[in-house]
Amino acid sequence: MELRHLRYFREVAETLNFTRAAERLHIAQPPLSRQIQQLEDELGVALLERGRPLRLTEAGRFFYEHSTQLLEQLGRVCDDTRRVAHGQKRWLGIGFAPSTLYGALPELIRRLRSDGDVELGLSELITLQQVEALKSGRIDIGFGRIHIDDPAIVQQVIKEDPLVAAMPVGHPLLAAPVSLEALAREPFVLYPGTPRPSYADHVLGVFRREGLSIRVAQMVNELQTAIGLVATGIGVTLVPASVQRLHRDDIGYTSLLDSKATSPIILSYRAGDDSSLLRRCLNVVDELQPSPGAQ
User: Fold this and answer.
1) Do the beta carbons of residue 193 and residue 221 sit within 8 Å?
2) 1 pLDDT exceeds 80?
3) Cα–Cα distance for residue pair 277/258, rounded to 1 Å
4) Around Cβ 211, how many Cβ atoms within 10 Å?
5) Which of 9, 33, 100, 195 has the smallest number of CB atoms closer than 10 Å to its CB?
6) Confidence grade of residue 291 (pLDDT, cut at 50, 70, 90)
7) Within a 10 A sphere around the Cβ of 136, how many other Cβ atoms?
8) Is the per-residue pLDDT at 295 higher than 50?
9) CATH fold label, 3-85
10) Which residues contact 26 (CB under 8 A, 6 or more apart)?
11) CATH no. of 90-157+264-288
12) CATH topology agreement for domains 90-157+264-288 and 160-263
């Protein structure tokens, strides 16, 4: 299937007339008919009822709606690509670990989007994936949770997020701040399972530093999945305190007695990148950090 098949079908679907569609496309009618037949053969369905008048089948209506959205999106991408190439628009790729969306990242995105000449590309990636995406040029800056030792990447901690325990509503440990020792007796849901190292290894390290180990009842790949499984009673988990903004009636959060149990938000970018747009992003990050002594 090629783009011309989608464009040809769009014209036929909008005119419901092969002759008029061919005129709008500036091609002869027989080749147009053959192209539409090829499209139907590849899909294995009839898109048109070839009677008088010509009609779209139910499958044809579905394909028209969604293929038109694809063509419109492609058109916007092409236009923005030309603007980037001509210096009329700048593009910034941002990678983010899901839990960082509950901190300052949304405000950073809002501020950057307010710059009319900036186009943002957002990719949900854990820190390890961000490093590879930075090296390949797919993103320009990343917001993750773990330290990576790589000379090609610069990392800076922009915040230490206290860890809190997430438990199903009614769990007896929700009554007061809890110790790591008490939590270590509970089954755990950890995330993400792959790739490693990841935030899961950070949580394991928090307990290891205290000479403790935990029993992992379930490994999952997504924060939301972990929270959902905690709600079912499978286990408990540790999440950054900012995740408490994710309100659920079946989940409760409690702070830890160990104030050193934190999860950093780590900003990553390519070593040697001195682009003006990256500097703009770093400046906004600095502006969003609370001043020393602020509550």
Assistant:
1) yes
2) no
3) 39
4) 9
5) 195
6) low
7) 8
8) no
9) Arc Repressor Mutant, subunit A (1.10.10)
10) none
11) 3.40.190.10
12) yes
